[in-house]
Amino acid sequence: MKFVSIKRDAAFYDPFNEFRMTTRTTDIRIDPLTGKTSRIIYFPVTLPPPPDPMPLAQATQPFCPFCKPGVYEKTPRFPEKIVPEGRIERGDSILFPNAFPYDAHSAVAVVGDDHYTAIDAFRPETLTNAFSAAIAYIAHVAEYDETAVHHSISMNYMPTAGGSIIHPHIQVIAGDIPTTYQREFTQAAWKYREDEGVLFFDELIRRETEAGERFINSRDGITWLSSFAPKGIAEFLAVFESTEPLISLASLAIDAFSAGVIRILAYLGSRNFASFNLALYSALTQDSPYPTHARVVPRTTLPPLGASDINYLELLHDEVLTIITPEDAAAGAGSFFP
Questions:
Q1: What's the angle, vertex CA 133, arms to CA 63 and CA 255, rounded to 5?
Q2: CA-CA distance, 20 to 32, in Å (whole number)?
Q3: What is the pTM of this model?
Q4: Which long-range contacts (CB under 8 A, 24 or more apart) does 101-104 make?
Q5: For 60-334, CATH number?
Q6: Contact, 65 vs 258, CB < 8 A?
Q7: DSSP letters along 120-133, please?
Q8: Which of 2, 83, 102, 237 is most buried, judging by how many CB atoms fall within 10 Å of its CB?
Q9: Average pLDDT of the chain?
Q10: pLDDT tens-digit profile of 256-311?
Q11: Stretch 103-127: mean pLDDT
């Protein structure tokens, strides 16, 4: 396994330094599994406190389809042959069909009763309830449709991350056609196991634990890392010790994952991030070349104009640009894991 970092220097006469010759370095990192590159650039910006979300939250709450009791009247129900009860409830979470589906089996689970929850105010049990409802749905689908072997649970939190409804919620996809990530990652993981004789994540965790630079925490069967070549402004990777798919994971593993997510979100809140994307990818149901794992990426807008944190490089070149080093992200997040 190689952690390749290529430095490239750009020199110019700097108008902000009396036109003295200045050199800025771009750190181009190659993902040790997929070979995809990410670029860490010099962009010395401190995120300001995010705008007050309460006016938007208050304005949208009266017609929110996810708030109770309206959720029972404004959301679809599953056909009885898939979910006999029509919807799935776990604690304060309720799961129902996605009215705008991404696949043949597509669902939404509400995360908690509150219409708005700050990024650093989620409770572990609330996340666990939503994840448990999602896993129960995937189990129903697996019984009904044996071809739907690709499972994922994802989250767009707040509009900056693509969330179209303020009320926190997660989305579930189960189908026979993998997403591009699932397909490419599976192919690369198979090749790594064939070439190296070990599972990629086993070797990654061993190497990162020994090095310590991007290692965050390992407890209760889950290891948290900061990705060497991140997929966003920062990226946090959670790897489950068990090789079981989502539908076979013990409840304690989901509890531990939720607790870890809460700590990552607390760190993001401390850095003035107010939005994030999350994806939880299930291991394959048979002879999977990787365990169940998750990725969390903070989202923001960049001052002073509120520019998107995604530009042409990521959208049209498939190349991630970031301004936070993975090592700094690991050090910061690690302080939130006692």
A1: 115
A2: 38
A3: 0.96
A4: 102/171, 102/173, 103/173, 103/174, 103/175, 103/177, 104/145, 104/148, 104/174, 104/175, 104/176
A5: 3.30.428.10
A6: no
A7: T---HHHHHHHHHH
A8: 237
A9: 96
A10: 999 999 999 999 999 999 999 999 999 998 889 999 999 999 999 988 888 999 99
A11: 97
